[in-house]
Amino acid sequence: MSPYERQIDPLESVDLTLVMGVPGQATPSRDETLERLIGAPPSAQRLLAPAPAAPTPVGPSRLRLSLGVAGAAVLAVAGLLAAVSLAGDSGAPTRAAKANGAATAHVLARDLGVSLGTYAAGGLPVTLTNTSERTLAYNVTVEALDEAGRRVTLDAVFTTALTPGQATSVRLFANHTGATADALAASTFRVVEASAY
Q: Which superkingdom is the protein from (predicted)?
């Protein structure tokens, strides 16, 4: 019977290198060590893994040189980012800002004309005109305010693509009845958000 086949008493202390390796071999080969690690459960793998090597100390001059190079690289990247951001900032909002309502003032000044009519039982007539030089779709939110400046309610409209100069008319606040309709009749209206995309 070979040493690989012998029965091991659970109470007996066994050297794993002798059981897994060639009898009499003092240290296992690299493959046997890997086999021992791979075949063990994760908790045992941490115990069986060799300890990491201690870091090599770095001399003061080499450390200063490393920090100097790293610092120069960080400053170069920061300068490049600042130059790119300043060169690209022409005061115009990004497409994302125009599309998500963050640039409402810009959209109303350059891309969209909004004309609010007078509220009646059928709603508030609103005319939207594309004042830009390209075809755009719009999303507009209008709020109704009472005499004290408190919001009564909101309504929104989405338009499909309007060509330059094209206008469309819609009715907002059309489905309100009762006390809300009465409050709307005495309200003032304003655009609170306008998006263009």
A: Bacteria
